[in-house]
Structure formats: structure tokens, C-alpha cells
Amino acid sequence: MIDIHSHILPGIDDGASSLEESLAMARIAVDDGIRVMVATPHVITGLYPNTREAILTATEKLQRVLRENDVSLSILPGAEYHLEPDLPKWMARGELLTVNDAGRYLLVELPAALVPEYTGKVFYELQLQGVTPIIAHPERNIDFAREPGLLHELVSHGALVQITAGSLTGLMGSEAVATARTFLKQGCVHFIASDAHATGDRAPVLSDAAKEAVQLAGEEEAQNLLTGNPDRAIKGERIQTGEIKDLRPAGRGIFSFFRKYLPR
Ligand SMILES: [Fe+2]
Questions:
Q1: Considering 43, 102, 171, 242, which has the largest number of Cβ atoms within 10 A of its Cβ?
Q2: Contact status, residue 108 vs residue 79, Cβ threshold 8 Å
């Protein structure tokens, strides 16, 4: 399996607090059947101002330490960007780090409580630059949970969706389970990732969620969510998306100001 969302780099966000913890997380991942992990530290203005250079350097350093300790986990560079209106501007300046620095997929986290009005505009301006946003764990966002049509609208305009393994297995609470299952059944999930922050409850474990995914979506789709699509993302290859089932109209259109500019 390939994990495209993790906070395994030590000391640069709220994830691993030391190199020892990073090593312990990597060992858990390998034992769980994860062979590649994208390190995606938070990038939030004023809170976690991690630059692409700092992340690239920290990724290389951790990879070296894993090799020295005979841990056979490949660590690739990435980041989890908080949704901010200036993301397209920073992308154009070459300041952002896409998944595996392959230039095609950007992991973006929305605020937990809402979907800002400018979400559609930011995504569209990223897409104009050939960059596809991957929405991190929408099942934990109150607006998306309440109104799946908001997520459907973004996905139907080309965004992809990553849900968190712990949301399928119950670690994130019963509401997250229900919402994650709904999104999965509706065909608007493209990745399952650990979003690991530590050892213990927030460890890099995907196998339990993989079993759930097989039950909910079948063997082939589960394989796609945990290996096939993540592999395409790290290679910067195109990801095939299916039709969204049970599409409900959004109560308020986040693309409403923008609709006339959108590709049909
Ligand atoms: Fe995260």
C-alpha cells in the first residue's frame, strides 16, 4: 500500500515530535504493509510556515535515517496545505510542494467547520495551472458532512478526495464513519490514507480500513483507493474518476460567482 498523507517528519508540525518517533511510525507502517509514504506536514500561514525547501531537506534526512536503520519504507516529499486564497499565486511562483513534487496533485485541507466561499475559485485557479487539488478528509468537515452536494460539486469539477483510514474504522467517531461510508458509496472517494501523526491511535495503519473498503466498495476499488490511485498520484499520472452516485444539488453553490468561467 501507498500512504499519501502522513505527518511523519519530526518536529515541523503537530506530527512526530522526534526522530525516534518518526522511526517508530515507519516501523509500524512497514509492519502494516505500507511500502511508500508521502510525508505531508501541515503548511498554515502563521502556524506552520514550512517551505518546500525545508520539507525536501527533512524528507531526505528521514529517508537516510530509515536506510541506516534497515527500515524498508520509501519516504516521498509532499505537504498538506491549509486552504488559503493565495495558494494559486504561491503555486505559480513555484513555492508549493505537490505530491512527490511531481507537479500534478496538491493535498489541500479545508477548515474543519466550513467550506469557504472561495474554495471553488482557488481550486479552479490551481487547475488552470495543471494542478489537481486533493481534498484531505472531507468526512471530518461539518459543511461537507451536512451537505454532500458541496463535495460532489467540487469533485464533478475535477477535485479528488482523500478520506482518512481512521474515519472508516471508527477512530474519528461515529459521525465520521457514517460520512466516510456515504462518500465511498457515492463514488466520490479516490484515496484512503492514514493522516498518521504519531504511534498509538494516530499511527500509520491502513490494513483495517482496507478491509472495510473491500466490504463497502469491493476488492478492485479498495485496491485502487489504497495502491492504484496513490501510485498514479506519486507518478503524476492521470486518475480516472467514476460517476458520482446519488448526486444531490448543493444548497448553496460554491461555484456560483464563477460558474460562467468553468469548463463544461
Ligand atoms: Fe493531515
A1: 43
A2: no
Q: How many CB atoms lie within 10 A of CB 69?
A: 10
Residue 166 CA, ligand 1 centroid: distance in Å: 12
Using alpha carbons only, give the angle 92, 98, 100 rounded to the nearest 5 degrees.
145
Query: Separation of 25 CA from ligand 1 center, angstroms?
Result: 15
pLDDT in tens, 6-54: 999 999 999 999 999 999 999 999 999 999 999 999 999 999 999 999 9
For 167, the grid coordinates are 474515519
Residue 257 binned pLDDT confidence (cut-offs 50, 70, 90): very low
DSSP assignment of 26-54: HHHHHHTT--EEEE--EEBTTTB---HHH
Give the model's pLDDT for residue 135: 98
Q: Which fold has domain 80-261?
A: TIM Barrel (3.20.20)
Checking DSSP bridges between strand 80-82 and strand 2-6, what pairing results, if any?
unpaired
Distances (CA, A) of 152 to 9, 143, 172, 189: 32, 12, 22, 10
What residues does the ion ligand 1 have nearby, CB within 5 Å? 80, 195
Closest of 67, 78, 71 to residue 25, by C-alpha: 71
Are 160 and 190 spatial neighbours (Cβ–Cβ below 8 Å)? yes
What mean pLDDT is predicted for residues 203-224? 96
Domain chopping of the chain, boundaries = 80-261
Residue 260 CA, ligand 1 centroid: distance in Å: 33
Dmax over CA atoms of the chain, in Å, equals 55
pLDDT per position as a tens digit, 145-161 = 999 999 999 999 999 99
